[in-house]
Write a structure and sequence with these properties.
It contains nine helices and no strands. With about 280 residues, it is mainly α. The protein has a single domain, classed as Growth Hormone, Chain: A (Up-down Bundle). The longest helix is centred in the middle third of the chain and has 37 residues. The chain starts with a helix and ends with a helix. About 5% of the residues have low confidence.
């Protein structure tokens, strides 16, 4: 299990690193406004949700199971590629909007619509890869370490949040030392190391046999009986993101540059989330 904790510690760090740098690059290409921050955050979260949902359904419906740990290695490799691809895609979007605006001057709402669509098409597929890491890793634990699968989500989530807390602070130092492109390259190398390590680990024999189908049936019944929890989680996520956006708008005048203000608020938010997760596991 320590391998998986390490995977998600580094993965959480890289995810927040990308979020901070992509936000700054998006503002440089499109606009430095609260609306733009909201667009980037929305695209990031939508991608995470789509990836988690799609990967979870794919894992449940797979009949001839492909090793989930290798699927996890694949998505980590794709996340590393995103570090190099997203800046170029955002720059293309800026060029596209400039050509459209030259021919037909855009009103502010229409400009944000086009910018939001481009940012969405750019970030959502890559962020979906980030969201897919949880289902694939949980499936890998269920296949290889079934005795530890009961609370695997909270275990991985704790590691991911701890890495994200570091990712809200350390990248700011990396940006000052290496610039945005250099910081993204550091993240890409870390994701490549994750992908390589996960693939090599998948070559080892599983320590325990895969759980019987009976446990899967029980899990399906439990999921069906607790559908109401999705509504609670939706409400919690909605209010959390709304509060985060409002905090950014309120504290930016006092904290200065939007990215640094965003990083500070995000770091505090994630630290509190980590404490709550640690309390649950305790």
């Amino acid at each position: 299990m320590r391998w998986y904790f390490g995977f998600f510690l580094v993965s959480g760090f890289c995810s927040i690193l990308y979020e901070l740098v992509w936000l700054r690059l998006a503002m440089a290409q499109f606009a430095v406004t609260t609306a733009l921050v909201l667009i980037v955050l929305s695209a990031f979260m939508i991608g995470l949700g789509i990836g988690s949902l799609g990967a979870g359904r794919w894992v449940r419906r797979q009949t001839q199971r492909f090793p989930s740990l290798r699927l996890y290695a694949l998505v980590e490799l794709l996340i590393g590629i995103s570090a190099l691809a997203v800046p170029r895609e955002l720059a293309l979007g800026r060029g596209f909007l400039e050509r459209v605006d030259t021919g037909h001057p855009l009103s502010l709402p229409f400009y944000y619509i086009l910018a939001g669509l481009w940012i969405g098409f750019t970030l959502v597929p890559w962020c979906a890869c980030m969201g897919a890491t949880f289902p694939f890793a949980m499936a890998a634990i269920r296949e290889r370490l079934p005795q530890n699968s009961t609370r695997s989500f909270s275990y991985l989530y704790l590691a991911n949040v701890l890495g994200a807390v570091s990712g809200a602070a350390v990248p700011l130092v990396l940006i000052e030392l290496r610039g945005f492109q250099g910081t993204l390259r550091v993240g890409a190398v870390m994701n490549l190391c994750l992908a390589t390590s996960a693939f090599l680990l998948s070559l080892r024999r599983a320590e325990s046999p895969t759980p019987t189908s009976e446990s899967s049936v029980i899990g399906a019944k439990t999921q069906s009986a607790n559908r109401w929890a999705y509504l609670v989680l939706f409400g919690t996520g909605f209010t959390s993101m709304a509060a985060e956006v409002v905090w950014i708008r309120l504290f930016t005048p006092g904290l200065g540059t939007v990215v640094y203000a965003f990083a500070m608020i995000l770091g505090l938010y994630l630290s509190a989330t980590y404490l709550g997760s640690q309390f649950y596991r305790g």
